[in-house]
Specification:
Elements lengths: L8 E3 L4 H11 L3 E4 L2 H12 L10 E4 L1 H9 L5 E4 L7 H9 L3 E4 L3 H17 L2 E4 L2 H10 L7 E8 L17 H4 L9 H9 L1 H14 L6 E5 L5 E7 L4 E5 L5 H9 L30 H12 L3 H17 L5 H14 L8 H22 L1
Parallel strand pairs: 1-2, 2-3, 4-5, 5-6, 7-8
Antiparallel strand pairs: 7-9, 9-10
Helix pairs in contact: 3-4, 4-5, 5-9, 5-12, 9-11, 12-13, 12-14, 13-14
Length: 368
């Protein structure tokens, strides 16, 4: 793999420690960071390093530089992994430039699914999902025709509060919510997994990726996290994709598709006894999953508002300003207050996102 791919650009936020080590390892030609302040800090870090100036990458910051890196003619593959709608503009531009996209940012489709998928069709770009569930579904869909599919099943671990009584959730702390049972992830996505909002986002993403209505996408709780997705065909056959909980496999799959190459991940030992369990999610206790289905069925800007409100509410919970159940309260109230619309451009999607964040922030101020 190492001699097959070369890193042209690294796009980061503000985590300079990781970025600096990656610059040393991959020697990219371009590095883009979040803002001018971070850019100056990076320049100072490089100036004090042993890296000769002639080996420095071209340094830039901000959204326009992210877009420029994504559409660079020499780039063939773009990994869209920026958290939130911050990655939407660059991903959309890369799609229109006919790049192959490894999609690890679900907000791209949650916020702008209709526009993004239309651009994929018009440009003839490739959009390969990296999330383990959608990547697993992508593999299962290769077994038959799309019109033979009757149902897609996405699995969920159930999060750390799967067995916690609903009346105890108000006492949940951020530290407890950040203790995911099977995956190591960023703070927001870990909280979203605890509320099952992340699974709701995955339902929305799956609807756009695989051209399915919400009624054909089901969620099942599978605490062992060994099966990532299942596709049911009209003859009753169900194909499941199972693998270790290691993101290197789906990342490599997206980069090398349609070929399969050996990945440096643990193999499942089928000689060892194991038990896999499945159950329906509790949408009364974790009501954001149900809200996500309703938002996708509503269409238009609803899912963009859903994402924006959730991000604001999760930040408030992590800061200790609201309780765990108040995350869902805030999201539901924001959806009720924020007027719906039909965004026709990416700029309009971003405007909806900003307006929805402001609505959620006002709601939270009222709760304070």
């Amino acid at each position: 793999m190492g001699d097959r791919f070369q890193v042209f650009a690294l796009v980061a936020g503000k985590n300079l420690d990781v970025l600096y080590s990656q610059i040393q390892e991959f020697t990219p030609k371009v590095v883009v960071v979040a803002d001018e302040t971070t850019l100056e800090l990076l320049k100072n870090r490089l100036s004090g390093s042993s890296l000769p100036r002639h080996r420095w990458p071209e340094l830039a910051s901000g959204p326009k530089s992210r877009v420029a890196a994504a559409i660079e003619p020499s780039v063939g593959f773009v990994m869209s992994a920026i958290v939130g709608v911050a990655g939407l503009e660059a991903t959309y531009a890369a799609i229109r430039a006919k790049k192959r996209i490894g999609l690890a940012n679900k907000e791209v489709l949650v916020a702008g699914g209709e526009l993004v998928m239309r651009a994929v069709r018009e440009a003839g770009a490739e959009l390969i999902p990296v999330d383990s569930e959608h990547n697993g579904a992508h593999q299962c869909f290769r077994a038959g025709r799309r019109d033979e599919v009757t149902r897609l099943l996405l699995t969920a671990s159930g999060g750390p509060f799967r067995d916690t009584p609903a009346e105890e959730l108000a006492r949940v702390t951020p530290e407890q919510a950040l203790n995911h049972p099977t995956w190591k992830m960023g703070r927001r996505i870990t909280i979203d997994s605890a509320t099952l909002m992340n699974k709701g986002f995955e339902v929305i993403e799956a609807c756009w990726l695989f051209d399915l209505p919400p009624s054909q996408v089901d969620v099942v709780v599978h605490p062992q996290s060994s099966i990532h997705a299942m596709v049911e065909y009209n003859d009753g056959s169900i194909l499941a994709q199972a693998s270790a909980t290691d993101m290197r496999m789906p990342i490599q799959y997206a980069m090398t598709y349609p070929q399969r190459e050996r990945a440096p991940v643990a193999r499942m030992d089928w000689t060892e006894p194991r038990t896999w369990t499945f159950a329906a999610p509790d949408v009364e206790k974790f009501r954001l999953l149900r809200v996500a289905y309703l938002a996708q069925e509503q269409g238009g800007s609803a899912t963009c508002t859903l994402n924006a409100a959730d991000e604001v509410a999760v930040e408030a919970f992590l800061a200790g300003r609201i309780s765990f159940p108040a995350i869902a309260d805030t999201v539901e109230e924001t959806l009720a207050r924020q007027p719906g619309s039909e965004p026709a451009t990416i700029e309009e999607v971003i405007a909806v996102d900003l307006a929805s964040r402001e609505t959620a922030a006002r709601i939270l101020r009222g709760k304070g």
